[in-house]
Amino acid sequence: MLTLIYKNKLEEIYPYITTALRMFLTLPVTVSSGKRSFSKLKIIKNYMRSTMGQEHKRAFLVNFDDVINTFAAKKARKTYF
């Protein structure tokens, strides 16, 4: 349809239709690129999970005894009048 408009030199008569057709022709036909990007994200996340070493995981551990002792020490400093 757009080629017909250009072939007959009607783009000046129908400028909005020409613009709409050009925009329509640039739209993707499918959304497979979006699906592929989610698939790649899943692959990357699986890779990161499997390559995370034990030492790296230990760095994220929280020693609850240290947290309790620190909290208790801060609360013990309060003075009551």
TrEMBL record:
Domain (HAT C-terminal dimerisation): residue spans on this chain: 6-57
Name the UniProt record assigns to this protein: HAT C-terminal dimerisation domain-containing protein
Top-level division of the source organism's lineage: Eukaryota
Any one GO molecular-function label of the UniProt entry: protein dimerization activity
A Pfam family the protein falls into: Dimer_Tnp_hAT
PANTHER family, A to Z: AC-LIKE TRANSPOSASE-RELATED, PTHR45749
Gene name as annotated: 20214655
InterPro entries: HATC_C_dom
